[in-house]
Specification:
The complex is a heterodimer of chains A (387) and B (508). Chain A is an all-alpha fold and 387 residues long. Chain A is built from 17 helices and two strands. Chain A is globular. Classes of the chains: A mainly alpha (387), B alpha/beta (508).
Chain lengths: 387, 508
């Protein structure tokens, strides 16, 4: 089993390409460090590499904590990619999902120990609805999903700002009210294991969805159809696959994932609240890199999500050195985005793989000389006569 | 000896397969040299090696006796080698001119010198009778014209060794004659041509010599004039091939497909694409729709299979009206469809062979339970089909269809569509790109299907296929059926007259 898995991982050029891309990203990041702050570049870089480990148990816990939402948005973007759709709207879906989760978390304290589950499902439904709309527009009117989901990002953000102020507003701090204790994600004892970190059951929720999406994509007829549409629309139509239905479903599921991401962020009980600011949620965009880096494979998303979180955590500790926070952000983004060039690297990789083959054999030499030698006149060819 | 190009002892491996196994080929200056071999024999691979797309494990390439290194298409271009690929490589939303100069643009201060380039393209196209309009978009022109663009691309680069990979597979008989003349013209200008085709007639017509490959191995190089078609096909397949189709007369019974007053209009043009087309196809007969390409065949097939809507008229299958049914419903009711364009409609190139073989059945009980794919059944079923239809590839059912040879891709479609045991099989150019052995097999399959009481609607551009395989020929001209003929008493000349609209009969 283990062997088979290893073999598979190594056999896939996608995996190798992702690794190459990551190293390239790290390398470029290091160059930038050298340029901006040559004295401390090496120390700073080592800090990034040590990533979350710098903080010991707390750091490790925080890696998982920060990875949770970007795994979810990575799943969201990746799933849509598989159907040939670019869900750039994870940000809006996330915030809408987050809002509904908070709303349920604050206003329905009577739900007992299932409170957080219901709040999360509410967030999931809201995210799903937010992506359903661009899906519907695409299926019915062929409106490009990139345009409509960017618009839905802004509509979602402003709407949530207004709704928070109306419904769950903490006017002292100008942010959403804290959710009830019962609506917070359970910590499952991880708060003592990784003391000082905010890690919670959210990471297991994310892993659960990784598995669910993996099964949908690889084991079901639904996944077969979705990928078929993503690869070749015309052939899917020819095969009688209902592309419209699949576009809508794929977007809806993608939105649901982003909605869960929002729920997990604001139900974490880690002191994150919906602030009334005109900024789109970053996690939605990081999800794009995570998905690209993983070639949209759900299992890959789990690992790239953790990787991105690891690097980001490392960035936090760089403040120990003489780096302004903006530079740190830039470095981290460079590493992440450069890594996301994996797709292009992968392309080259595949071409190289095609050029070189495997195996060998002994072959008898053929005779090279033609049997008869005769030069044929061009004039008496039928083609010339054929007019 | 004046060989312009020599490829000596070339070996090229792909995962699971030796695509070229110590193959040698020598091209004389000014000759047309044909390359013949079964589907998957390694012809495209050998030419791709010469063009620098693949790097061989072993072997040398010489030009005018000197060893050269070709690592990529830029190198081959440097040595004057150009190639028209089996599946064209044009940018569809670019113009003809832009495609021709792509990669060798000349600029002045960073600005494209389009004027000069255009002048040269026009000159070239006049000189070699390759009429195209430089300002047309590729997506708007016919396949035949696209091919001329590919040829112009080579000429524009001053290539003198021209490789044509199955150039005639996509062309109409008229265009083929046209192309043969162009090729002759090119050799007169001193160019040397390597020409891949499965059609022995074409080899007989233009080629001087012919190299034959079988399963990746070099078999022989022959002189075309003094070798018969029978000998060539035997050398290539390794056994005697029956070039003539033999079959019993049909005994059609009840009507399977009934088309009544079918009319199709499109938004783009005012003229009808199809006007009042009516015909029947009975169980136990092969009905052929013959015609020059572009006379409504595509619209007819799309309407029948549900790929596009019908403006007027009805289509019934076994008495059931299916005019408004979805594609899936028609399928389940027993309609199979071998599409014209295998890359656009027929295959999902990035799926494995196994997944492609169940493309029409993955949702049936045999391959799915509660929405979960039964991979084990899919695998056994695809292994069966691969065996039965002799689909050759490097890694069997796991092979990505994209990496398979053109003819084997076609065989995969045929296997899938025939094996569903359809009530009516709509087969558009089913043997396009197949070798003579495979054609023989497919024709036998079609006839077997017929004898089992299926109805077959064959859409073909090739007159000899039309006359030898079908039991009834309907000629389509400008969207109308203009003749209903008995192939046993019709000559090619007569058929040609109907197809060109010079003659028509009253069809009930
Ligand atoms: N890029 C590739 N990767 C893996 N296998 C390949 C690749 N290209 C070709 N092959 C395999 O090599 C063999 C030879 O293929 P090739 O395309 O040269 O055949 P061909 O003689 O041109 O056939 P056809 O007449 O069907 O076009 C086939 O079995 C094919 O599956
Ligand atoms: Mg080929």
């Amino acid at each position: 089993m283990m062997n088979k898995l290893k073999h598979r991982l190594l056999a896939s050029s996608g995996f190798a390409a992702s690794l190459i891309a990551i190293f390239a990203g790290l390398f470029v990041g290091f160059i930038i460090l050298l340029i901006t702050n040559p004295d401390q570049a090496v120390d700073g870089f080592v800090t990034i590499l040590k990533g979350g480990f710098t903080g010991g148990a707390k750091g490790i816990g925080n890696i998982f904590y920060l990875a949770t939402p970007i795994i979810m948005t990575g799943l969201s973007v990746g799933f849509a990619f598989k159907t040939g759709l670019f869900n750039i709207g994870a940000s809006g879906q996330l915030i809408v999902g987050g809002y509904v989760a908070v709303l349920i978390g604050v206003l329905a304290p009577g739900l007992g120990s299932f409170h957080w589950v219901i709040a999360l499902i509410g967030g999931m439904a809201a995210g799903a609805l937010w992506a359903f709309i661009p899906g519907l527009l695409k299926a019915l009117f062929n409106v490009h999903e990139v345009i409509s989901s960017i618009m839905m990002n802004y509509i979602g953000m402003f709407m949530v700002n207004a709704l928070v102020a109306e419904t769950v507003f903490d006017s002292l701090r100008a942010q959403s009210l804290p959710v009830a204790q019962s609506a917070q994600m359970p910590t499952l004892g991880m708060d003592t294991l990784f003391k000082g970190s905010s890690v919670n059951a959210g990471i297991f929720v994310a892993i659960l969805f990784v598995i669910v999406l993996y099964i949908i994509l690889n084991k079901t007829t639904f996944g077969y159809e979705l990928k078929a549409c993503g690869f070749n629309k015309d052939a899917s139509r020819y095969a009688g696959i209902n592309a419209k239905r699949n576009i809508i479903l794929s977007m809806t599921i993608a939105g649901a994932m982003a909605g869960v991401a929002g729920g997990l962020i604001y139900l974490a009980g880690s002191g994150k609240f919906i602030e009334i600011v005109d900024v789109l949620a970053m996690e939605g965009f990081t999800g794009i890199s995570v998905a690209l880096l993983a070639s949209s494979n759900p299992i890959g998303v789990l690992f790239t999500g953790i990787f991105v979180s690891y690097i980001t955590n490392g960035g936090f500790y760089m403040q120990l050195y003489d780096f302004v926070p903006e530079i740190i952000d830039i470095i981290i983004s460079i590493i992440i985005y450069f890594s996301a060039l994996a797709l292009i690297v992968r392309h080259f990789f595949d071409r190289y793989a095609l050029k070189s083959g495997l195996g060998d054999d002994d072959i008898p030499a053929p005779k090279v000389e033609p049997k008869r030698k005769r030069r044929i006149g061009l004039k008496n060819k039928e083609v010339d006569k054929d007019e | 000896m004046d060989y312009v190009i020599e490829m000596l002892n070339i070996t090229k491996k792909f995962p699971g397969i030796l695509a070229n196994d110590n193959v040698s080929l020598q091209l004389k200056n000014g000759e047309i040299h044909a390359l013949l071999g079964e589907n998957g024999a390694g012809k495209s691979t050998l030419m791709s090696v010469l063009f620098g797309l693949y790097k061989p494990e072993e072997g040398v390439i010489k030009k005018n006796g000197k060893t050269i290194k070709i690592a990529n298409p830029n190198d081959s271009n440097k040595y004057g080698i150009g190639m028209v690929h089996q599946h064209f490589k044009l940018v569809h939303n670019f113009t003809v001119l832009e495609n021709i100069i792509l990669g060798v643009e000349s600029t002045k201060n960073g600005v494209l010198k389009m004027g000069e380039a255009k002048k040269r393209v026009v000159e070239l196209s006049e000189k070699y009778h390759l009429s195209v309009n430089p300002d047309d978009l590729i997506s708007d022109i016919t396949v035949g014209q696209q091919q001329r663009v590919e040829i112009l691309k080579m000429l524009y680069r001053d290539n003198e060794i021209l490789i044509f990979d199955e150039p005639t597979a996509m062309l109409t008989p008229q265009e083929i004659i046209e192309l043969m003349k162009i090729m002759r013209g090119l050799t007169k200008e001193g160019k040397s041509i390597l020409f891949i085709t499965h059609k022995l007639d074409e080899i007989k017509l233009v080629a001087d010599r012919c190299t034959i490959l079988r399963k990746g191995k070099y078999i022989d190089t022959i002189d075309v004039q003094s070798t018969t078609k029978e000998v060539m096909s035997e050398l290539m397949v390794g056994r005697k091939v029956q070039l003539q189709v033999d079959k019993e007369p049909a005994s059609p019974t009840d009507v399977v497909l009934n088309v009544k007053n079918l009319t199709v209009k499109t938004k783009r043009s005012k003229k009808n694409k199809l006007t009042n087309v009516s015909f029947e196809a009975k169980s136990g007969e092969i009905v052929c729709i013959a015609g020059i390409d572009g006379n409504g065949q595509k619209e007819l097939v799309y309407a029948l299979t549900g790929l596009s809507d019908v403006t007027q008229g009805t289509i019934t299958l076994h008495g059931e009206d299916i005019t408004k049914d979805t594609i899936r419903k028609r399928r389940v009711a027993g309609m199979s469809h071998i599409p014209e364009d295998r890359h656009k409609h027929g295959l999902i190139l990035d799926y494995s062979l196994a997944y492609n073989l169940v493309l029409q059945r993955y949702f049936s009980k045999a391959f799915q339970k509660l929405g979960f794919l039964k991979h084990r059944s899919i695998n056994t079923y695809s292994n069966e089909l691969i065996e039965k239809f002799d689909i050759r590839s490097g890694q069997g059912r796991k092979t990505l269809v994209r990496s398979m040879s053109g003819g084997n891709q076609q065989k995969a479609i045929l296997a899938r569509e025939i094996d569903t045991d359809p009530e009516i099989l709509v087969a558009v150019q089913p043997t396009r790109g197949l070798d003579v052995g495979a054609i023989e097999y497919i024709h036998k399959q079609l006839i077997r299907q017929r004898d089992e009481g299926k109805a077959i609607l064959l859409i073909s551009l090739e007159l000899d296929e039309v006359l030898s395989v079908s039991d009834r020929v309907l000629v389509i001209y400008e969207g109308e059926i203009v003749a209903d003929l008995d192939p046993t008493s019709t000559t090619e000349q007569e058929l040609g007259l109907y197809m060109s609209g010079a003659k028509r009969e009253a069809v009930s």
